[in-house]
Amino acid sequence: MTILGTALGIVFCLLRAVSGESGYAQNGDLEDAEPDYSFSCYSQLEVSGSQHLLRCAFEDPDVNSTHLRFEICEGLLDIKCLNFSKLQEIYFIKTNKFLLIGDSKICVKLGQRILTCRKMNIVHIVKPEAPFDIRVIYREEANDFVVTFNTSHLQKKYVKNLIHDVAYHQEKHEDDWMHVNLSSTTLTLLQRKLQPDAMYEIKVRSIPTGYYKGFWSEWSPSFHFRTPEPKGPGKMEPVLLIVSILSFFSVAVMVILACVLWKKRIKPIIWPSLPDHKKTLEQLCKKPKKNLTVSFNPESFLDCQIHKVDGIQARDEVEGFLQDTFPAPLEESENQRFGGSVQGPNWPSKHAVITPKTFRRDAPLRCLAGNGSVCGTPVLPSSRSPDCREGGKNGPHVYQGLLLGPGTTNATLHPPFPFQSEILTLNPAAQGQLLLTPLGSNQEEAYVTMSSFYQNQ
Amino acid sequence: MVHVSFRYIFGIPPLILVLLPVASSDCEFEGKSGEEYQNVIMVSLNDLDRLRENDSNCLNNEPNFFKKHSCDDDKEATFLNTAARKLKQFLRMNIHEEFKTHLQIVSQGTLQLLNCTKKVKEKKQPSLGEVQPTKNLEEKKSSKGQRKQDEMCFLMLLLEKIKTCWNKILSGTKEH
């Protein structure tokens, strides 16, 4: 019995002990649960000169950390362990005694009792410092925005290689963030990828890369900028508008002037008309009057007194002769028929009227010393008419065919007209060539020159 | 004949076992990737050069230490181990804190990357005085300033040798 009782007692105690350790509860009684002492840490290297910072905190905010402390061992320079300092609920340590090679052990202690430990590498829990001084500059000529920012890690020795995350969005779209990753501190945003005339917010954060690993830094302070208004399809710069208007009016004025001055000024210069001999002669010669009869019939010249010219006579005699014989004026048309020859009122028909027939008969006598065949050429056109009495007062005076007597070679010819004062000199070598010489008057010249063509035009 | 066989059976194997540790390396090189050296140890070596930039009045003669210990082929780890331990002796000198911190990083970082065995660690390292035994008499006669100058020259030379040996190891690792 004694042995049996003892054995039952031992079994009962064992049962109690086992049930107590396993947490078994009867009738709904719950024992106190072990608190969660899990924690997380991050490091910041060269945060203050050569000093590094290590911060740890409990993940459960309800943990009573009154008597708890943190300790780090291993991975230190010339020291085995270091204790953390406490600020409210945050545990931190600031030192340059981190080796930065290999793992360290961080433990939570209650007195000397270790509650929990974690092994972590200081260089794998690095949290960079937040970037700052972010700026956005609009470049109108390039139609883009240049984003620049600064970070303190550019001057650090250990954590130098970072990846930056630039985030921007329209302020009216709260959650629509665009992200751009880059390794440098400069970013270019194209204007066409942004909404015109909109307000944008932009910020940046960093994370280490390479040997040093860790977490994203805090966001930088935001920067706000507005995109420019869009340029309308018909909108132009004021200077360009003025220049285009002036150009249009200049072209219009030039077109109007060209139309107005085309016929009189521009066309003669661009397309000068070639001289037409027929027209020129018509302009030079006067229009023949009506009832102008032309005939080679000698009977039509019965009214004209024809005087045979045997030689060059003295002027006085001729003048006297002419006054006696030619009281009546001659027609103007006869002057024109001579091609510029003018017959004065005192023109001796005898001298002037030379029919082809008469000319042929008297050719050897009337020609200058020379060839008879040449002299046979009628000097005066057949345009002679009975109206030869009328003389062209306005036309040029021409000696056409000076009929000389046989004794009058190399002699100067005196014009039979009182108003003709020029002296004609004949070259005997010019066989049968009759010279058209200007008679010299205040009338128009008989010679037709090239310049007269242009003048008549 | 039986005596001869016993000699070979029981004599030679123990001999091999004794000689094997001598021939093999005592250090397990862990930093072969070069990341730890380039991102931590080299930073400290450069800072030490910067801090000692102005002091260049050193003699050209090579101390005896380097005649005994050199970064020969297949002996790089051993040399670095010895050199790193030698650096610890300079921590006792009266030097600037920042200088001392970088010395510690180079020394301790090298030893941690080499991960040498306990046997090598316990080997007695020659003290600064034994490095140049021929100069012991001269050191007594010279002033303290000259002595310090000589030690600093030796230190800079030692750091230069460590840097060269590290580069040799990493370049050899990249080729493989």
TrEMBL record, chain A:
Domain Fibronectin type-III: from-to ranges: 130-230
GO MF annotation list: cytokine receptor activity
Alphabetized PROSITE patterns for the sequence: FN3, HEMATOPO_REC_S_F1
Compartments where found: Membrane
Chain segments annotated as transmembrane: 239-262
Subunit organization: The IL7 receptor is a heterodimer of IL7R and IL2RG. The TSLP receptor is a heterodimer of CRLF2 and IL7R. Interacts with CD53.
Family under the similarity heading: Belongs to the type I cytokine receptor family. Type 4 subfamily.
Protein's name according to its UniProt entry: Interleukin-7 receptor subunit alpha
Automatic annotation (TrEMBL), chain B:
Gene Ontology terms: cellular component: extracellular space
Location of region: Disordered: 124-144
Highest taxon in the source lineage: Eukaryota
Keyword flag Signal: yes
Presence of keyword Disulfide bond: yes
Disulfide bonds: C27-C165, C58-C153, C71-C116
Signal peptide positions on this chain: 1-25
Keyword line: Cytokine, Disulfide bond, Glycoprotein, Growth factor, Secreted, Signal
GO-annotated molecular function: cytokine activity; growth factor activity; interleukin-7 receptor binding
Subcellular location: Secreted
GO terms under biological process: immune response
InterPro entries on file: IL-7, IL7_sf
Main location: secreted
Family of this protein: Belongs to the IL-7/IL-9 family.
Function comment: Hematopoietic cytokine that plays an essential role in the development, expansion, and survival of naive and memory T-cells and B-cells thereby regulating the number of mature lymphocytes and maintaining lymphoid homeostasis.
Protein name: Interleukin-7
Source organism per UniProt: Pipistrellus kuhlii
